[in-house]
Fold DinB family protein.
Amino acid sequence: MPLSDVEPRLDSARPSEQFTAYLDYYRAVVDRKLEGMTDAQLRTSLLPSGWTPLELLTHLVHMERRWFVWGFLGEQVDHPWGDHADDDPSGPWRVPAGVGREELVAALHTGGERTREVLASHDLAERAAVGGRFAAEDGQPPTLAWICFHVLQEYARHAGHLDVARELADGATGE
């Protein structure tokens, strides 16, 4: 998949195709923003929040899987909160020892393939399954469209965070 720096514009596309294109676009943006950073830069925080670029990347990998696989499909996944210390959703982001940029970027794009499959085979009005992230007692689970909007805003927000982190790390700016 080419890492396009051009925002998708599919005026006549179905909404699910728009979501797919934008999610692919933001995965590529995140990949590009981290490209060329040293391992030390990836593992060092220059922000008051304390997170590192690599911690943000692992968050995005887990976040997308939480919403589409564990959430929408209702499939059980190992460590759905694995981006947080001790699998605690309120804990800080963490990267397991020995895991680096290449492995996480590959996981980001592999997760994207799964998301594309979900969007190609389900209607946006379909509600998430009960039994994964959502329990029957939680009330009516969200629609796939709502999940897409949520995940898209997560990517957009965190791509902006990476803009700042990258500029502070080495002065690089831009898309």
User: Anything to note?
Assistant: The radius of gyration is 16 Å. Residues 24 and 113 are 9 Å apart (CA to CA). The chain has a mean pLDDT of 92.
